[in-house]
Amino acid sequence: METYSLDILQLFSDDLSFLSKKDELQVQAAIGKIRDELVTRAETWLVQNEQHHIITFSSPAYPDALRQLPSPPLVLFVTGTLSRLQQPPLAIVGSRRATQQGLGIAKSFATELAFSGLNVISGMAAGIDAAAHQGAVAVEGRTIAVVGTGPDLVYPKRHQALHTQIIEQGGAVISEFWPGMPPRAQHFPRRNRIIAAMGIGTLVVEATIKSGTLITAKMAADLGKDVFAVPGNINNPMTQGCHYLIQQGAKLVTCLDDILEEFSHLTESSQQISAASGEKSEDESLATDKLLASVDYDVTAIDIIAERNALPVSDVLAALLEYELRGLVAAVPGGYVKLRGK
């Protein structure tokens, strides 16, 4: 795989003719501000692993979508499969404090999008981001994580295993921040603009009214990208942001086809998608079970489930434990919720 020298004089190719004179001067001025210490760190990071890549603004490997930003990253540090950056991704974003139902929705949509031939891009944050990466990485590593730290750090630290899985399965982790750079509050809006710009569209799964997720969605809309939102319970504050976006013109999404019909030229045929998503396991066939059907997508109390099935609570708990182990339901405060798509 090709990598790029970090000689400060060769950080960018001499050919910047695709830029306006004003932009070229700005790029050159920015290059001049790069400290030698940062260059040394980057050179050290680059040679540590053959999966480490440094992509400059003038490189052919640099994503074209990012060049449209008012202040595009001058350098991208990429860990993993470099070709992921040239394949169309769809962004999935949402709350860090997502419900079990929201996590299930994000993971399910990500898996189905990956089966359709699209990559999934997100920010590797807790909650919806992580669920999206987990859903897509299982399908040929079809995910891109954009991080708000240097490429040599993992944040949050508990996502070390996810970070490793993304790289090992063929995905990519990218950053515009130099090695050694810790997470800082101002880094994450910059990360979000990369997600919004690289995504051919943005799907929002759970968000409060005042959240960074809505800012990302606005960035995508301002760039002329489609914004999709998953509706939910009107009494749940975690879905109020999605409802707001729908009121503002975002497309309401309840199934994969609501997204794919906007990108039919980029995806596999509907027959292939149906075949891939239609391969149900024996566990998933339990979705027609009466007891499972009595569990709602919102929190359902144990005694309500027992009453609906005319069964002792002990029998219900035993059955629910089996369903939980099979990924059909999730235990939450106050009872259980059924995972969407199960």
TrEMBL record:
Q: Which residues form the Smf/DprA SLOG domain?
A: 54-263
Please, one GO biological process term?
Answer: DNA-mediated transformation
Ranges for domain DprA winged helix come to: 281-335
Short name of any one Pfam family annotated for the protein: WHD_DprA
In which family does this protein belong, per the annotation? Belongs to the DprA/Smf family.
What protein am I looking at?
DNA-protecting protein DprA
Organism encoding this protein: Alteromonas pelagimontana
What is this protein's gene name? dprA
